[in-house]
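Ticket #4471: structure export looks truncated?
Reporter: QA, pipeline team
Priority: medium

Steps to reproduce: submit the single chain below to the structure queue and open the exported record.
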Amino acid sequence: MIKKEEVKHIAKLARLGLTEKEITKFQKELSSIFDYIGKLKEVDISEVEPTSHSVGIENMMREDCPNPVETRFQQTAGKQSSKLLKLAPDTKDGYLKTKSIL
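Actual output as written to the record:
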């Protein structure tokens, strides 16, 4: 069983103000979590190969470029977009220019 002092120390590190009732509650909950971790340590995983991901997924990167809208109403859309671009505070090459967010 985890001690109350340890719960208080963890709460202090996390900058949490806990009441005595909460400390008792977390003492029980943390103890059950640590007990479960102890059970997991007993499992034999000697023949299991380590993996970083269970599914072979890779990041697919693409070139960061705009894709033109292709619709059967492209002329109408072009007229509407040009009207909207005229209202925009800043544009470049027919697109809205925005501040960098990264």
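Status: closed, not a bug. The export was complete when the record was re-opened. Leaving a note from the reviewer for reference: The beta strands are 91-92, 95-96.
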